[in-house]
Design goal:
Blueprint: E1 2-4, E2 16-18, E3 23-25, E4 30-32, E5 41-43, E6 50-54, E7 58-59, E8 64-65, E9 69-73, H1 78-95, H2 107-131, H3 155-167, H4 170-180, H5 184-188, H6 193-203, H7 206-213, H8 220-224, H9 229-239, H10 242-252, H11 256-260, H12 265-275, H13 280-289, H14 293-297, H15 302-312, H16 315-325, H17 329-333, H18 338-348, H19 351-361, H20 364-372, H21 376-384, H22 391-400, H23 402-405, H24 409-417
Antiparallel strand pairs: 1-5, 2-5, 3-4, 6-9, 7-8
Helix pairs in contact: 3-4, 3-6, 6-9, 9-12, 12-15, 15-16, 15-18, 18-21, 20-21
């Protein structure tokens, strides 16, 4: 039979180990281990007329251990098959005891595993694009993408440049800048090189930094989707004057909605709104973004850009974002991403919009629905701190649904945070 490797006891005769993706075939026996299986499997002797079939024992989707294998007798009917399986399982139980079930992964462990898989996929995509420049598509966004060329400086030279920029005097800075000139774009796409460029922009004079930044012109869209070069563009926006950094906003025109949804590109818009929110080129980008306000508010990355508009945008743009939230406040307040924007709207919206928003979210049914919701409970915490509302009235509504809240961990935490339950965590 086929069993998990952890159940295999050393010394059992006639065993063979199969790794994921391998197959075992012979005249008497056929078996295959599927590639998605997490770990080796052990193949033991079985009757010659049996065919072994197997499925993954560990499901990466549900993060749970599943003993999902079976045995079939091709020559027998279903009744005979059942008797074979039961008898074999009975005999096997005399030889070894199954190990405990695979423990359930915690939410944080599952989250780390998902992030690791995303990082691995991204690294694989970068490797593919390096090997095949004609690959030509940014798999994360569906748009064009080309990585910067590899820098001519090796890791040791980059470390030496970083040391000169960090510790040496003016002479060391000048030597480092001389080595960097002509390679800014290639260094921006390198894990160590991007740090050197950022440090150079900090230590150089405005004139010297402006000369370095010129080498990034025409590459902003590519840098916005790069895991390393995006930090260089952020440093350009935060470190340089607008006259030197204006090309960043200019090159993003026409791509705002796509890049705002990008895990790296969204950061560029946040920096522009943080440092140059009143400049015409930035205002033009915001106007373009607000054409898809509702969709962007609920996006896992673009909602950060909408938050920056609420915090740093003009009053007119801020009202447009809040107006989108007011189309269905309760739904947005229970959304994983838009719920953050609702909390910021309490703080930054004008009095009129704030009054309308609070009126729709502070009635008893809405507060109860939010408190029970996975993400709406964060909005309830913000409601309690709003000066215009009667805090005791909100807490009275929460007390009425305390039995329901005690059934979930997030509900218990909400009660603790509101001071309605002692902290037992």
């Amino acid at each position: 039979m086929v069993v998990p490797a952890e159940h295999f006891l050393s010394g059992l005769p006639g065993g063979a180990m199969l790794l994921p993706g391998q197959q075992f075939q012979c005249e008497q026996l056929q078996a295959a281990v599927q590639p998605q299986m997490h770990g080796p499997m052990i193949l033991l002797h079985m009757p010659q007329d049996w065919t072994i079939q197997s499925q993954p024992f560990y499901s990466a989707d549900s993060y749970s251990y599943r003993e999902s294998f079976w045995m079939t007798d091709d020559a027998a009917d279903s009744t005979t098959q059942g008797s074979h399986s039961e008898a074999d399982q009975s005999n096997d139980s005399q030889d070894w005891e199954p190990s405990p079930r695979w423990p359930q992964l915690t939410n944080s462990a599952a989250r780390r595993l998902r992030r690791k898989r995303v990082a691995d996929r991204f690294t694989k995509q970068l490797t593919t694009m390096e090997a095949c420049p004609s690959y030509g598509q940014d798999l994360l966004t569906g748009g064009p993408c080309s990585d910067p060329p590899a820098p001519c400086l090796d890791a040791e030279m980059l470390s030496d440049l970083q040391l000169k920029l960090s510790e040496d005097g003016r002479k060391g800075v000048e030597d480092a800048l001389a080595a960097i000139r002509g390679q800014v774009w290639s260094l921006a796409g390198d894990p160590k090189g991007c740090r050197v460029v950022q440090l150079a922009l900090e230590r150089a004079s405005q004139q010297e930094a402006s000369e370095l930044v010129l080498e990034l012109r025409g590459h902003v869209q590519e840098a916005a989707t790069s895991p390393h070069a995006n930090y260089v563009i952020q440093k350009v926006v935060s470190q340089m004057t607008f006259s030197a950094a204006s090309f960043v906003a200019e090159e993003l025109v026409g791509t705002c909605a796509r890049l705002a949804r990008h895990r790296f590109g969204c950061r560029i818009f946040c920096r522009l709104l943080e440092f140059f929110s009143t400049q015409n080129s930035t205002l033009q980008l915001v106007e373009e973004l607000l054409g898809e306000t509702q969709e962007l508010c609920c996006h896992s990355f673009a909602h950060h850009v909408m938050q920056a508009v609420i915090e740093n945008g003009t009053q007119r743009h801020r009202k447009q974002v809040v107006a989108a939230l007011l189309t269905d406040p309760l739904a947005f307040a229970q959304d994983k991403n838009a719920s953050y924007l609702v909390k910021f709207a309490f703080r930054y919206s004008c009095q009129e919009d704030n009054r309308v928003l609070l009126a729709q979210l502070s009635h008893p049914d809405a507060i109860a629905a939010l408190a029970i919701s996975q993400y709406g409970c964060h909005v309830v915490r913000a409601l309690v701190e709003v000066e215009e509302l009667d805090t005791q009235a909100v807490l009275h509504i929460i007390r009425q649904i305390m039995p329901q809240l005690r059934e979930t961990k997030r509900g218990q935490r909400l009660l603790v945070d509101l001071g309605l339950e002692p902290d037992s965590f």
